[in-house]
Amino acid sequence: ATAVAVLNTMGILLTLLPPVCAALACLPATAALQLPLTRLNFVAPAKSGLPVDSVQLFGQRGVFQLVNGSAIHGRPEAAYCLRLGVGTPRQIITAKLDTGSSDFVTAGAKTPGLDRWFDAKSSSSLVWQHQLVRTPYTTGFWEGHLATDVVSLPGPVPGPVRAAFSVAERSSGYFQAGAGAWQASVGLAFERLSNARTAAGGGNFADTLARQLGDAMSTGSPPVPFCLQLCGGDAGLGSFIRIGQANRTDMLYASVRWDWYYEVVIADIKVGRSSLGMDCKEYNMDKAILHSGVGDIRLPARVHARVAQQVGAQQPELGNRFFNGLGLLCSSDGSLEATKRLLDAFPSVTFSLVTPDNQTVDLELSPAQYLRPVVLGGSPAGNGSCFRFGIQSTSDGAILGATFLSGFLVEFDRAGRRIGFASSSCPEANSSSRVLGPRPYVAIGGPQDCAFFRADVAASTSVLRPAAVAMATVCAMCILPVCALFVWRQTHRRCRDSDGENDGETVQLVPA
């Protein structure tokens, strides 16, 4: 019996060894700072003009169950969060991790529906920076003042840090209330997006950690790279952020084109092995960014329609409601076999991103990655597994959200202006989600022809101003002689008219 127990224990350890080794592979030779993340599930309110007032379940060949669904009033979403202690005495807040912004902000006043916030008046260690910060969004805003205070991190971290963050006294439609609530947001994008850049050290939270814990954790000096692993499942077991550079031999890199968001260039999108066949500029109109604060993959309307068309061609029973995020697809029962049959009926979706050397790297998403599991309480489908389509339409450019990131270990290297992708070590990691390449890109002008070009006003001002002065000088040199000649001729003409010459014109007297 003892021998059998030993063998069973060894078997378990051998089973756990590969994912553990894969997770540790992101660690450099010296220790790095790793913080666990929690996945919070909630229902986001339906957007105006796009009500989600019912769930329609579809069926196909006995694999999927066709059931009239129960009503919900929003779309199922998720956020990957850190549990932080802020202030003295410590107040616990839940902060969403967001690569689509650069500010650390926490709710600082009672807001309708929000049952927790940071009480700045109760912290003896808080120092106000006397700077007003306001950030508007498409569907909300927050406004407050910049401050610094001590922040305690989860896990075995060598002491708290003093971080700069905004205390939002007013907000609307930004923080998440109720189930799956979060009261703060930790921005991890480039400093260009930050509204709190001061001597207090606002901006990217990863750099704040590197400045104060860099020597202890061997993370180097800012801007530091960091790794993100976002796992599925109800709690996101295995999710983490790690401050420090990855050390993976299988890491393939896409280039960051613009240092604000993590903007990439999409060279192609494939459904199965077939390209969408569109002008690649449409994939990047007006930008293509990686954004952990957004749940779905969001694509421009025409691109989304083409993806839905090609995926739907293999599933003719599915209607537009499913592909527009207004319906759920459920397996016939809750068994793993039925769920596997459901997922196997869908093709992979591949995004080809441009690399620093103008090749492409292919990120192949399995159906288990872009079909997002949804738990419906009291659903007529019983204990069946339900899914929603995780690729949606938007007018804000291509946004590769958590659905895209969750299939891979992702390194954000701001100093190198690149993003690395490797296989994930999540417990439910999809073996069919793959990182492939690099591959040559055959096109006239290369893959950069796919990029959307915008004017960088801040960077180009110093170049445009001397050019504008020079052009104005040249124009003045050309126009002034013409103006002088015109003035001389007009003056000469008036002089001749004053001498009594009529120039042959008839003068008609009009009575008063």
UniProtKB/TrEMBL annotation:
Any single biological process term in GO: amyloid-beta metabolic process
Keywords, sorted A to Z: Aspartyl protease, Hydrolase, Membrane, Protease, Signal, Transmembrane, Transmembrane helix, Zymogen
Transmembrane segments: 467-488
Keyword Hydrolase included in the entry's annotation: yes
Species the sequence originates in: Macrostomum lignano
Name this protein carries in UniProt: Peptidase A1 domain-containing protein
UniProt keyword annotation of Ubl conjugation present: no
The Peptidase A1 domain, residue ranges: 80-422
Record GO terms (molecular function): aspartic-type endopeptidase activity
Signal peptide coordinates: 1-22
UniProt xrefs under SUPFAM superfamilies: Acid proteases
Gene3D superfamilies recorded: Acid Proteases
Subcellular location: Membrane
Entry-linked PROSITE patterns: PEPTIDASE_A1
Family: Belongs to the peptidase A1 family.
Superkingdom of the source species: Eukaryota
GO cellular component, one term: endosome
One Pfam family matching this protein: Asp
